Amino acid sequence: MRKTVIDAWVSDLTFPGYMDRWHRLVAEFEARHPDLEVRLHGVGFFTGPAEIAEAIAAGRGPAIAEYYFYMAPVARDTLALDGSPRYTSVERAVGGRTEILGEPVVLGDVLPAMREQYTYRGDLTSMPSVGTTTLMYANTALLERAGLAELPETWDEVEAACAALGGVSPHALTWPNHGMLYQQVLATRGGLLCDADNGRAGRPEKVELASPQMLAFARWWKGLHDAGHHVSTGKIPDWEGNFRLFAEQDVALRVSSSNDVNYMAEAGKAGGFGVAAGRLPYDASLPYGGNTVAGTSLWLADGLPEAVREGALAFLQFVHNPVNAAERHKGTSFLPITRTACDLLAEEGWFAANPHHKAAVEQIDAYPARTGLTGTPPCRGALFGDFAGNQDVMTRAMADVLAGADPEERFTAATIEAQLLLDAYHADAADGGPSAPTSLRIEYFRDAEAYSGADLENVVQLSGAE
């Protein structure tokens, strides 16, 4: 029997055993569908977009391709050899069906915040695959010594906690100078990074890094830093250095990715202190705008033969069915993708036994609960070309502010620099689709500050964790 081949290119995140799980899922899927063959290929996290673009330009390219969340504009702008869009909408391809080749469709079960991140003009364009948000972690032993019973949730509470921690730890808190933090804070404050509804209503033409919401955050951050409460390693973004400060108990509070939850818990175990995870603090003087998510999503190539398209769609549903989504969360600490997966984890007692893991789900669900509204949260991350380059502009500007530059002057200059990057991306995309290295980059600082789970594992080992 000749099998239908489905090429699936996914990001190899280099965590121990990460690709092993993908290969197990492929084997299970093929056992359920003996007429299908999934050819799995792991692309580099930083080089994946360029690898995929090169394959498409050579007339190849996968049926399923995984892109980092802020690379959605690149995926939408990528063209096939005939000049048509390379990818089609997953939601339109499913067409309202409840099952595909016997695999129950899970699109309608995707967590609202995850769905919103990958929705463009009301259409779920790609299938969420990896999800994270930004949390605050605390050394509970240091908090108790400072007389603090709970993690701070608002900016005012953070300032009060910092004052209480003054005689307990060398510094109160730290966080990496990374672009995701800016997106998160602006979301909670209802701010945007670009026009066209943050790039959701159409192609954005203008970026704005000196908005009132951004400047308020920069001034608040600088105030904490100048007071000696916030400590910076001086590097961008330096996830490992910030983790080390927490692991060695030089700070009591750390803001970082929800995917760090296991490493943070291990650091506490190694250092003999408890670790709690809670929401990213927000400015309570403004209406709470919710939190964004980061991660990756899987895009479906357009113009596939029917058997390949149906097989690819069935595979996307299978890897995200409740059991598989729940198991992926337990194995990687990434957000459970669907509501049913969350319910399954709760029923199994996973969240009760691992409360750190529940904090991320509770955070991205918090907007409707805190406002009394129903439906999906309106906070959606920005979508615009060369986000990585613009991220570097933001982080460099903030580094200068911490060193003494005026926030408004520095971020106004940063806006001019960022606009040039966006204009350059548009010019590249108009010339046959994004192909320039700058358009396809994930992180500009990757050579100097590459981040992976291995980095944190090394620090955990150095701190004495087993």
Q: Would you spell out the secondary-structure blueprint of this structure?
A:
Elements: E1 4-12, H1 18-32, E2 36-44, H2 48-57, E3 64-68, H3 72-77, E4 87-88, H4 90-94, E5 99-100, E6 103-104, H5 112-117, E7 119-120, E8 123-124, E9 127-132, E10 134-139, H6 140-145, H7 155-165, E11 171-174, H8 179-188, H9 195-199, H10 212-226, H11 239-247, E12 251-257, H12 261-271, E13 275-279, E14 294-301, H13 306-319, H14 322-332, H15 339-347, H16 350-353, H17 355-364, H18 366-371, H19 387-402, H20 407-430, H21 446-449, H22 453-463
Parallel strand pairs: 1-2, 1-3, 11-12
Antiparallel strand pairs: 3-14, 4-14, 5-6, 7-8, 9-14, 10-12, 10-13
Helix pairs in contact: 11-22, 12-22, 14-15, 19-20
Q: How would you explain this protein's 3D organization?
A:
There is one protein chain. With 466 residues, the chain is an alpha+beta fold. Helix content is 47%, strand content 15%. The chain is built from 22 helices and 14 strands. It has helices spanning 18-32, 48-57, 72-77, 90-94, 112-117, 140-145, 155-165, 179-188, 195-199, 212-226, 239-247, 261-271, 306-319, 322-332, 339-347, 350-353, 355-364, 366-371, 387-402, 407-430, 446-449, 453-463; strands at 4-12, 36-44, 64-68, 87-88, 99-100, 103-104, 119-120, 123-124, 127-132, 134-139, 171-174, 251-257, 275-279, 294-301. Strands 1, 2, 3, 4, 9 and 14 form a six-stranded mixed sheet that branches. Strands 11-12-10-13 form a four-stranded mixed sheet, with helices on both faces. β7 (119-120) and β8 (123-124) form a beta hairpin.
